[in-house]
Amino acid sequence: MALFAEMVDKLIRNFFKAADLIEEQIPLFVYLAVSSLILGFVQMYCLTLSSKRQARRIRILFFDSLIRQDASWMDSRASGSLISLLSSSIPLIQGGMGNRVGSFVRDVVLFVGCIIMAFVKGWKLALVASASLPLIGISFAFLGFSLKYFNNKEIQAYSRAGGIAGEVLHSIRTVFAYGGQETTYKRYSSELYKAEHTGIRKGMAIGAGNGFVSLSIFSAAALSLWYGITLVRTEKFSNGTVILVVVSIIISSIAIGKALPEIEAIARAVTSAKKVYAIINRIPSIDIDEVGYAPSTLIGKIEFRNVCFTYPSRPDVPILKNFNLTIQPGEKVAIVGFSGSGKSTAIHLLQRLYDPQTGEVQIDGTNIRDLDLNWLRSQLGTVSQEATLFTGTISDNIRLGRLNATDREIEEAAGLAGADEFITRMPDGYNTWLSEGGAKLSGGQRQRLAIARALIRYPKILLLDEATSALDTRTEKAVQRALDRACVGRTVIMVAHRLTTIRDADKIIVMKEGEIMEQGSHDELRAKQGQYYRMLQAQVSPFYH
């Protein structure tokens, strides 16, 4: 900057005097041009490389933190909003880093350097020209506040819209079945309208801010020229000094003008970063990384002691009330009851997806809060109502149960689950590629793969959460045979809706409104003619006639 200013001053003062002196300045201009090219390329390359790497690292940290959060936190947040954060907020953060930061710093330094140079060369003229600087500062303050406020509102609106879109696409068949396209369209459009309205207001604020800044800049330039002419006449200021000061003011104005878009991008990045890092820095209440006690062996005795529980998302609705239950090693226990009675909650607590508000859940006499969470879950095999399959081969999906499983172990688990018979009929066998959700497979086939995935863990405790309730009668029988084989030699907890599947259970627990109403074997409970008997009568089952 100093070299450039000196060159300009000499060039103007001697423009009509000495051609040789002017020619001496030309190589210096070439030097400045070449060095600016090289340094500009290096700057942009390094900053872009840095921003890409930082964005990748932020994505990894965000996703890693997201999948480690506890279930209660997940329950209170829409999955679409979290997906929107991952897909849209992180690019905004990247947009506020890298070359934008470099350009912003360069423009600010250029602005400050030009102002300093103007004061050094002609402080009187620079002082008058800088009279508009407070107005520029106020304009920037207004602009920055407006950007921060409206960016936050805009991101929230788009996040809600993304949540609606994700929810609809996830349940698109239900939307089709009930003709909900118009309703969901209106919901989505409403959120987009809010985002659009916020964006328009933000544009108005940016326009007003830019207008004030431009007014200040051009006022400073006009004032500088007027006062510069006066100084040339009265104080013998050189033409070169006046031009240098005026050019410095103009360049500083251009630098500020170029910095304006960068301020907006950086403001959006800061707003997005706060949301993303709020999740990255959050420590879950149930932390999978927390080291706990890992016994060398597990016998399989389970105890629920005076357990009271409410879901954090519904704190005013008690789910379990002083729940007490003891399950002996190798025992097969079924839990039945109407919807909302707390059947599945018992399984969720045993998996330690949630912690009870009061009471304890114990395995082999140890509170599961004291057990290492990774170890605990490695001892549990879970088969739910909805068999979740992921994009990949059949072998990959079964191996998710135990990542170091061999191909032979995968085939053994599939055979035990009754899945081998249909897998071997496929052209690619265990290498058959499955799309998301296993759309190519029937419900029974998907469920048998889920059973195989649970069995490959060699679990001591098997949890069956309405594993056959979504299947037709014929498929249910085939899957039930696979489950019966899987239950041998294990402690089993079955949550069931169809009572045909639990007749052979060692103990049946009948629940109502979070409390145990009855317990005993099928024959014992049927003889009592209580709640279980009434549930039997309510179902069309061949075994009670």
From TrEMBL:
Its main location: membrane. It is found in: Membrane. Residues 302-538 form the ABC transporter domain. Residues 1-268 form the ABC transmembrane type-1 domain. Keywords: ATP-binding, Membrane, Nucleotide-binding, Transmembrane, Transmembrane helix, Transport. InterPro entries: AAA+_ATPase, ABC1_TM_dom, ABC1_TM_sf, ABC_transporter-like_ATP-bd, ABC_transporter-like_CS, P-loop_NTPase, Type_1_exporter. This is ABC transporter domain-containing protein. It comes from Mesocestoides corti (Flatworm).
